Amino acid sequence: xxxxxxxxxxxxxxxxxxxxxxxxxxxxxxxxxxxxxxxxxxxxxxxxxxxxxxxxxxxxxxxxxxxxxxxxxxxxxxxxxxxxxxxxxxxxxxxxxxxxxxxxxxxxxxxxxxxxxxxxxxxxxxxxxxxxxxxxxxxxxxxxxxxxxxxxxxxxxxxxxxxxxxxxxxxxxxxxxxxxxxxxxxxxxxxxxxxxxxxxxxxxxxxxxxxxxxxxxxxxxxxxxxxxxxxxxxxxxxxxxxxxxxxxxxxxxxxxxxxxxxxxxxxxxxxxxxxxxxxxxxxxxxxxxxxxxxxxxxxxxxxxxxxxxxxxxxxxxxxxxxxxxxxxxxxxxxxxxxxxxxxxxxxxxxxxxxxxxxxxxxxxxxxxxxxxxxxxxxxxxxxxxxxxxxxxxxxxxxxxxxxxxxxxxxxxxxxxxxxxxxxxxxxxxxxxxxxxxxxxxxxxxxxxxxxxxxxxxxxxxxxxxxxxxxxxxxxxxxxxxxxxxxxxxxxxxxxxxxxxx
Amino acid sequence: xxxxxxxxxxxxxxxxxxxxxxxxxxxxxxxxxxxxxxxxxxxxxxxxxxxxxxxxxxxxxxxxxxxxxxxxxxxxxxxxxxxxxxxxxxxxxxxxxxxxxxxxxxxxxxxxxxxxxxxxxxxxxxxxxxxxxxxxxxxxxxxxxxxxxxxxxxxxxxxxxxxxxxxxxxxxxxxxxxxxxxxxxxxxxxxxxxxxxxxxxxxxxxxxxxxxxxxxxxxxxxxxxxxxxxxxxxxxxxxxxxxxxxxxxxxxxxxxxxxxxxxxxxxxxxxxxxxxxxxxxxxxxxxxxxxxxxxxxxxxxxxxxxxxxxxxxxxxxxxxxxxxxxxxxxxxxxxxxxxxxxxxxxxxxxxxxxxxxxxxxxxxxxxxxxxxxxxxxxxxxxxxxxxxxxxxxxxxxxxxxxxxxxxxxxxxxxxxxxxxxxxxxxxxxxxxxxxxxxxxxxxxxxxxxxxxxxxxxxxxxxxxxxxxxxxxxxxxxxxxxxxxxxxxxxxxxxxx
Lengths: 501, 496
What we know:
The structure holds two protein chains of two kinds. Chain A is mainly α. Helix content of chain A is about 75%, strand content about 5%. Chain A contains 20 helices and two strands. Chain A has helices spanning about 5-25, 30-55, 80-100, 110-130, 130-150, 155-185, 205-225, 230-235, 240-250, 250-270, 270-275, 280-300, 305-325, 325-360, 370, 375-390, 395-410, 410-440, 460-475, 485-495, and strands at about 60-70, 70-75. In chain A, strand 1 and strand 2 form a beta hairpin. In chain A, helix 16 (about 375-390) runs antiparallel to helix 18 (about 410-440). Chain A starts with a helix and ends in a 5-residue tail after the last helix. By secondary structure, chain B is mostly helical. Chain B has one domain. Chain B is built from 20 helices and two strands. A two-stranded antiparallel sheet of chain B has the order 1-2. In chain B, a hairpin with a 6-residue loop joins strand 1 and strand 2 (about 65). In chain B, helix 6 (about 100-120) packs antiparallel against helix 7 (about 120-140), helix 12 (about 230-250) runs antiparallel to helix 15 and helix 18 crosses helix 20 (about 465-495). The longest helix of chain B is centred in the N-terminal third of the chain and has 32 residues, at about 145-175. Chain B starts with a helix and ends with a helix. The chains are: A mainly alpha, B mainly alpha.
């Protein structure tokens, strides 16, 4: 095997091996476990960085072997996989740091970190999967490895949420598997290919292709929390904060959205999807989900629940972006894959900090927390403004690019949806910020802890601050090479002009 | 590296350090006394560099370009000067109540307000505008009273709606121009099939900030409840950001838009006269001043309308608008700052203070030898009916006269409400210095500022000709007579 085959495999294996080592380590091996965790996360980040550099310069990373005749296991690094892998690698490192601080002194940490690494390994596999079968393999592995994390607390509420989660996702998985098998029967084993496979599809196949597409999107839409398949997500927020952070930013919802991008771009191809009339209904569904999620978020009094409904809304930006037939709109959707991750993880980190440091869970308990925890609250403020789409933050770049793309694609109604969605985001985030900074605290905090010099434990303090800085930087420096925006442009360039013309 | 580079980056980035400083409580003293230092790089930039420089920032947002032309220079100068004097004032004025929080929002608002005057690409202009708007909320609600919270809520709701209208307008404009530069927008909007929609969105979006009638109602609530130095920058400088937004995006000089022009002329007339009618009934000094700002903005809207309707006259009108904005910003700033003074106990010294309080007000009304006289004469010249060709042009003169009467009435009303409010006692030294600096800038330093507009206003024509004297004075006489009647009437009502 050559180096170009080893690197993606190694990137996958770092988290997988870390997971096995952690399971083997004793519960009390706190230092060693942390070292393994951080070491693996750092190594993976380096490997992904190497691949990003290589993919940019046209190096092809990948390997494949035949599982059973007709079914191949394929790993391949293209622009799109690097986007997801990069997100996963960066946020894994930060979330691990955060989780170490968050779970200090709590039971079952070995189990937690084992599944945590397994979950990250799955996202890496999803990112690098080179065909639908491989994708499905890791997609299901993700389901199974996140379940123990959701129910980690072991409370009745957590178990109930876990049950809902597993029913939704396994159901979605079954539909997805059926669709993949059907597609396999119709068209054989299809590797992900820029431009897709069905540009010149036989008209006789159209009907089955349309049905398969609906099934694929339904199967993937469960994890992407598309309306009406989003029900599990707000319940799953009973999980510990680092899990919610990872679930909402990288792992689960992103895997669904990423899968939809793969299907539209690299299986069907944008042109064929559009010709089959599949994109417009998808765009309407995504637009509806955007507004629906935000409307529901308005009424939530629990902070994490409000953030969860906000995720329902925000992930649909990605789907809407690729469902508009046009390169600029696609850039807007793809870039949100990263932007949403960075912003949402900031918000969940902060929600965790409020809960761990002050015992705050409900929104009406947040009054005056800005003065007690200025660093966390600044990060939260930046994340919230990013979600609203205020310039110059990450969310603005998404919104501006998608808006420009919509006008270019003659879909002016999308601009109206974007504006409405921003208004709703403002309506449910700005009152929170007002509480944080301008209300006086109501007496004492529900459950306050002190950590000495910093406002909270250093493990919890720095990750949200870093992701908040990233939220600013990916917006302000959007035109630098290797920024999310530039990378999304590169992907779309290769998608729309696969021959490199 | 050229000096402009350093100055611009300092001007925008220096205030952004404040949030980091706020993480340490020990820094609060430094933050308070650094308030007047923050706008200094911008001040040097406005006074010390010649217009025409530009900075390419290709890595910024969708490609950044910052530059300074004649009009932007006046807005930058106004902004920097006003924030400097208000900063000096604030250093003396502020109480310990949430001091660091106030300083952070002050710094962020300042960065936005300065940045937007030099931003030429759509992305950074909109970014700075939004930063100013949202950080400004922190200044409005700072006092924490129910009244401030309520005013803040209206401010925020209108601000968000305004931001969305601006976003949609800029998005459509940039798509039509296929460019990310504001300079390409006017021409593209003029030729776009969607031009009416774009113009409507931009007029309304920036109109929220500029206090356009019907979109103005947040303004008399929000400007007065802020701490006094913040009121001064809100009403003096930030309100002008909406005006600048119009000037840099709308298709002035490209095509004749008699419909939009007439609408804006009507809105300007309504604003300048209607705001005065509401303002004279206000009981709190700063509320009177806020209505006066709407009224004055109405006069500027009048000129915006004429410039939209008449592309020939648009360039000259734009420079008059900038001059007027400079004059009004400085005078209104010092008027607002005077609302927080305490009076000295000596009779003679008190008379001096009253004189210095009144003079910027009289300048607003067009007292000869003041910046107001210059601005008013320039406006009269620019809007004279025989030079403009659109339907409502003939009605401009009476509106301007009524506006002049309204202006002085409001100033008199302000002084009247102030008499009962000012206490006798010492002022913190920095507060006095800040206020005196504001008065000095408005009355004296103004004459050295680079406001000369071609073909029209040239220094030193500040000595008006005899017939101009009369033109300036007779509306003021009407206002004084009206005020006297009102005073006598209110006395006689009270006696019964």
